[in-house]
Design a protein that fits this description.
The chain has a domain of 38 residues. Helices cover 19% and strands 35% of the residues. A hairpin with a 5-residue loop joins strand 2 and strand 3. With 86 residues, the chain is α+β, with helices and mostly antiparallel strands. It is built from one helix and three strands; from the N terminus they run βββα. A three-stranded mixed β-sheet has the order 1-2-3.
Length: 86
C-alpha cells in the first residue's frame, strides 16, 4: 500500500489522496501532528497529540467497510505500538 505525506504544516486535514495507482487497492495520506487540549482523567484538561490520516480505497477491489476496519486497526497500532510485537 502506498503511503504519502500529503499535508503542508499549516493544514489540519490532509488533502484527499489521489486514486490508488494500479495494481494497488488503497493509498494512505498522512497529515501532520498537532497538539490539542482534551478533557483529563482527573476532571481537568491536558494536552494530547493528534495525527490525521486519510485512506482512499478503490471500491472495485476494497469495500469501504473493509477500509474502515483497516483504518481502525492502523489507529490501534499507532496508539499502542507494542501490540504489533505480540
Amino acid at each position: 500500500m502506498p503511503v504519502g505525506a500529503r499535508a503542508p504544516a499549516s493544514t489540519h486535514w490532509p488533502p484527499p489522496p489521489p486514486p490508488p495507482p494500479p495494481p494497488q487497492a488503497c493509498i494512505l495520506a498522512v497529515g501532520t501532528t498537532e497538539q490539542r487540549v482534551v478533557p483529563g482523567a482527573a476532571g481537568g484538561f491536558e494536552e494530547a497529540t493528534f495525527l490525521t490520516c486519510t485512506l482512499s480505497c478503490d471500491h472495485r477491489v476494497v469495500d469501504g467497510a473493509v477500509g474502515a476496519q483497516w483504518l481502525a486497526a492502523f489507529k490501534a497500532y499507532l496508539e499502542n505500538p507494542a501490540s504489533m510485537l505480540l
